[in-house]
Structures are given as structure tokens and as C-alpha cells.
Amino acid sequence: MADDNNNGGEDDMTKEAEKRHDVRTSDATGPNIASGRPAFQSSVGWGGNPARAVDGNRSPLWGHSSCTATKPENDPWWYVDLGRDVYVHHVAIVNRRDCCSERITPFEVYVGKYTDMERNTRCGYRHYRFHPTDTERVVDCPLLYGRYVGIRLPGKNRILTLCEVEVYKTENAALGKPTVQSGVAYNGYASRATDGCRAPNWGSQCCTHTPAQTNPWLRVEINGVRGQAKWVVVINRADCCGERLNGFTVHVGDDERVDHNPRCGGHHVIPAGTNRAVIDCNGLIGRYVGIRLPGHGRVLTVCEVEVYPGFATRKRTSEVRGTGVQGCGDHKEGDSWVSDEKGQNCICDQNEASCYKVICGEKGEQPPIKDQDELWTCPEPDEKDESARGFLDESIEDWMDDYRE
Asked: Which residue(s) pair with 39 in the sheet?
């Protein structure tokens, strides 16, 4: 192989980035999800095809046919298709050692849904480097989500060589764990929130549903003992009624009552155009992770709740807030009132005024009604009679309809 030792340059930004971001030797646990997956690169030089980086051969020697290579070009790239979207924890890279090890410095790592790497999210900062004595380096990609993981060498006339690339995902601590909620309507059972199905439409039978209640909640027991929650991911409905979830709070702690546990930030809103919220709980420790909708006549529906462990990265302060307005004016803690906007109630919850629209029915088709306190609420759902008598009556009615026809 030609000995083109262009390394793209090392600058102060490279060194400073490494100080600020964790690039280390791999301490991976769990399977390498890149192994054997389809891989692609910007060009192929000297027979160094992209599949070599995911073949399981970690030899750093070119003669062992274990390393990729591109032709000399501007901004060469390589990526692997994981086959599905995952939360990536870190990426391990094995560099060539028999020669030319400096070629890879500086490099960038990307995770996302696009095959064009620059459209994806970069792990950490712009430039990372290998020290002269390093064979393997690891770049943390905390909770970046995507199907494609890529490596890019910024600069002119560069050659990208990789002897192995390994990708490790973050494990969801809530998957399959016991889950309960304050009530059930339309067969929207709590277990749907932790079944691994992220489909955001009601017809998929992946979403929970409570009746209209005051302060409905859902609680996941993430561990038989205390666990640590860094990120909580909430998947909302996308087919309708997405705004029904707005103003929710997330809690982590040891108390079975959700609102007795410490809160992650303030009142959270999932913006229009997306159905996913990633809440930073900053390493709160507890047995339970809960979601609560403060207010009257509220319906709690989520399509998945995921919990990812991690350590606190900054001090929790009173400035770590959500979307609620600080202070409640003339209203006291726990007060509810009707907003000036039609169909909306407001509540003073933990010294924040949070207003929300009351949306009723399985698919938002029912108009809200006023209750005895003049607050908006939902009519009681018409639950199907599942008793033997109900089944018999329904069967007779169906038979009579067929007979009349």
C-alpha cells in the first residue's frame, strides 16, 4: 500500500476537544451491534473494502487484510448501517499500527438517520485524535439516536483507514419492567409503555390510556433495588391528541406515589412536529420512574417510556426548569381554573402555572364538558360490557341483524 502520510494537520482545537470530551480505551459491555452489518465508504483504495471494519478482525496490521482504506480525497468517510435506530453509547475505533497511524487524526464521529454523515449529529466536538501509542480509542456518543454511525476525516487529500469499528448501544432499563398507572380506559394498559413498541399511533396497540382524571400518573419500577436515571425518553402519540401530554412532569425516587419523588426539571412540552421528548434527570437515584399530568380532567397517554442510566454531569439548581411559568399569580398551590382559551384548564403545580387543553375520546373525537366545579373534563368512556350476559345480549343482537337482512 502506498505510504501517503498526510495526516490532515493537528491544531489547538483538536487538543482542546480531547480535554473536554471523553476519548478513552474501550470498557465496553454488551454486544458490538456493528459486527457484520453493511458498511460503506467514499472510495476504495488498495483493496481496503469497507466491510473489513466490521468483520470482527481487530488486527491493526495491513497485511492481515483487516483494515479499510479510501483513495486520497477530500473529506473521506465511512459508515455502517445498524439496520434500525438505536441509542448509541459509544464507538470504539481500532487504528492501523504498522504504519501511517497519524492519518486518522483529526477525525469526527456521527450518529443519525442519514447516509450523508454531515446531516447527522456529531459525537461531542469537531476533532479527535489518536496519540502515537494508541491502537484503540473510544468516543462517547451519549444517547445519540440513529441507524447510521459514521466516521469522517475533515480536510484535503486525506486517506481514511480503519482496522475495526465497534458500536455499543445504551440499554433501556425500563424495558419489560413492571408498570402501573392511575386508571385504564379503552384497554390502554400501562404495560404498553414498557413493551419495546415505539409505534406512535393508537391502532398499533402500543400506547397507554387513562380515563380523564385529576393528576393521572404512570409509574415504572426500573429496578428491584435503587437505580440511576440519567435520561428518560417519552414517546408520544403522533396520530392525534399529541398536545394532550403537554405539561407533564417526570419523577425519580423510592416512593410509590409519583409526586412524592424528586422531579426532573419542570413541566415539559413535546413540540409540534415531533413525538419524542428526552428529559435530563441528571443521575437521580430511585426505584421508580414516574410520569404525571398535573391538572383536572386530564388523560395520560404515552406510547413508550425508556430509562437510560448515567451519572450526574452538573449540579441541579432551581434554574433547571421545564415550560411552566414561575409563580401562579393570585392562585395558590393546587388551585385549578379555566383558561381564557376555550377548552383549557390551568393548575398551580409546585409554584408553576401550567395550562393544558382537555382532549377527550380514544382519538380526540369527543368534545369536553364542564363539571360541577366549572372545569373542563371528559365524559366517561363507554366501556364495553365484557360479562357473559353482555356477550350473550350482543350475540343475540348480531343474530337478529343477520336475520332481518
From this structure: 80
Q: Following CA atoms 243, 318, 352, 306 in sequence, which dihedral angle do they give, to the nearest 10 degrees?
A: 30
Whole-number CA gyration radius for the chain: 27
Distances (CA, A) of 151 to 38, 60, 97: 15, 17, 18
| Buried/exposed code over 215-254 (b: 16+ C-beta within 10 A; e: otherwise) | bbbbbbbbbeeebbbbbbbbbbbbbbbbbbbbbbbbbbbe
DSSP conformation letters of 97-142 = -SS-GGGG-SBEEEEES-SSGGGSEESSSS-B---TT-SEEEEEEE
CA dihedral 310, 314, 319, 323 (to 10 degrees): -30
CA distance 146 to 120: 8
pLDDT tens digits for range 129-186: 898 889 999 998 878 999 999 999 999 999 999 999 999 998 899 999 999 999 999 9
Q: Which of 47, 14, 23, 32 is nearest to 95 (CA)?
A: 23
Q: What is the pTM of this model?
A: 0.68
Classify 57 in phi/psi space as left (phi over 0), alpha (psi -120 to 50) or beta.
Answer: beta
Give the number of other CB atoms < 10 A from CB of residue 172: 20
